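Worked problem 6 (solution included).
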Amino acid sequence: MFNKLKPIWLVAKRELRDQLRDWRVLFPMLILTLCFPFLMNEFAKQTVDFLNQYNADLILDRLVPFSILIIGFFPITVSLVVALESFVGEKERGTIEPLLSAPFDDWQLYFGKLLVGVITPLVASYTSILLYLIMVIRLDLTMPSASVLTQLFLLTTAHAFLMVSAAIVISVQSTSVKAANLLASFIVIPVAILMQGEAVMLFWGNEQVLWLGIAGVTIIALLLIRVGIAHFQREYLLGREIDTINLKWMAKTFLLNFTGGASSILDWYKRVLGSALRRILPAVFFVTLIAGISIWASYAWIKDNVAEMIAMATPEDIAELEENISDIGELPDISEIQEHLSAPFLFLNNTRAVALIFLAGMVSFSVLGIMLYMVNIALIGGLYAFLELLGINPFPIFLAGVAPHGIFEIPALMIGSAVVLYFGAVIVTPQAGKSMGEVILELLADWAKIFIGLVVPLLAIAALIEAYISPSLLLSVMG
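Solution. The predicted structure is:
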């Protein structure tokens, strides 16, 4: 085992030695690492003075964790240039051939570069955070709890792995340092948006959700590492000199995979679409399993938490709730709702939901897409439990109001989500003789086949039933 890991350390030591010699990398990193905590400290002092005028204690309690999150992020962005140059920089400097000719496996080369790319920003981030914590103690500000500090350090580590692994994937796929640096915005901007959501979690003080966020970032980082190793090809690095956008080749590759050489629509459905469906069958099994778990979890959560809230409510709380409901006015009955339902609106809404799951899955190797799918499917269990808590038998309501269109809509949602899961699984799997662009085009063609040939017709049928049949059946049950 040691003999397998030794080449990783040799590559990492070589890379680290080159970094420590380059003042253009060290100087900005040292300035940001040592000076930024003082800037955040001054920001904290000014913010505390301002908020003390309004007794905003909640924001004051969350100020230090938020500052730590920001301090840990900036050194990573500066150190990202090291990871972006890891392979393409060697190619431009003419040192890539001796490295690739070394008797190392591809994964050993990759992990050696990754190790240095992660260690450098993490050392800088941890140093900045520790300096800031010392200042916080001297200012007598509210220190975060041990669990929150643990979450913040884990988030910083997950961000470093996520950004560096994405930068190395870009470095492997780019032909020039200039192109790699331009593509860095596709790393920094999404992670900055992600941090906004994490900051909201911090200010809400929801530690459980933050643990889920840490898990999600870590999973995406691991998948990015897997993508880099799966599509790392030495010949590809040496053979390609310039990037060109060949729209004709892209369109030809996509259409060839989409049509599959079918002679008619019936042949396309039977042979091409059928082949695509067979490929995603394992993914269909997993999304079915995920659906069952999500429905059960939402049902159990509503039954436990909402029931507990009702049991703890005082008569005054119940009276206030009844008053608020009465202020809303009389709710429209089902017959009035039926008049405003339209099949095109329902069809577009459901189609947009499936497309959004696919787009979210594309940028996250299926993780965000499957999370959106879980939220959608979990509504069934949550609504069922809520009706039970209201003292209503939900089974007849679901049988009349959900089942007629659900037998078409739910399979469409599950199949559309299964394609997303299949997309993520294939992209992280080595594809011999194929570039990453070719693999992505083939996957897009598979998604388009299933979406257009199966998901859209199922959603269209479901929309017609939901607009014109389900309300009448529900009205006959509920009166």
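Discussion: The chain has a mean pLDDT of 81.
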